[in-house]
Amino acid sequence: MFIYLGYFDPYILNFISFVLVFFSYPWLFPPLICFTLLSYVVNFSIKNIIRQPRPSNEIRLFNSDHMKIDTYGMPSGHAQIVSFFTVILIYLYKNTYLSLFSLIVSLATYYQRWLYRAHTLGQVVVGACLGAATGYIFIFYINDTYLEDKNPLQLDNEL
User: Any idea where the domains of the chain sit in the sequence?
Assistant: First the structure.
């Protein structure tokens, strides 16, 4: 069960983030969608520039091959997306339980991608760093664009 959660965690965090932001900060929903799509495009682009293969002995959860567009391993897209949403959720909500949940989900994803040899440890680390960096860029963007008249530390952080 844990391994399946690690596989599906990016979609879980994506859904939770979209729902929370949509209802808590609706004005941030459109830029969140744009940055999420940008994160996917950046991942796809870097994979096709670097062209580093995935480990050859991958354990497949569903006996399926990777999509033709996702054959390369550097950086890990799963690690990138969970890191992106974890940084955003921690920053926007400052809620201990949500932060802990996001961190556990991220760690489970990193571990699953490495354990099942979908990525090397380096590919997971680079994906995680790239996702966190994209999350921080999103935060800088919303602070400049949407929160310039409001102290970002005074956001209503209640769930």
Answer: 2-21+29-50+73-149
The residues, any chain, with a CB within 8 Å of residue 104's CB and separated by 6 or more, are none
Q: What is the Cα–Cα distance from 137 to 143, expressed in whole angstroms?
A: 10
pLDDT computed for residue 2 by the predictor: 54
| Rounded distance between C-alpha atoms, residue 60 and residue 25, angstroms | 38
Ramachandran region, residue 63 (left: φ > 0; alpha: ψ -120 to 50; beta: rest): left
Report d(CA 42, CA 48) in Å as an integer.
Answer: 10
Structural tokens at position 40: 């996917």
> Token pair of 44, please?
């796809």
Radius of gyration of the chain (CA): 16
Q: Is 41's pLDDT higher than 70?
A: yes
Confidence of residue 152 (pLDDT cuts 50, 70, 90): very low
Give the C-alpha separation, 37 to 32, whole Å.
Answer: 9
Q: How far apart are CA 78 and CA 112, in angstroms?
A: 10
Q: Using the structure block, give the residue that is written with the tokens 């599906």.
A: 8
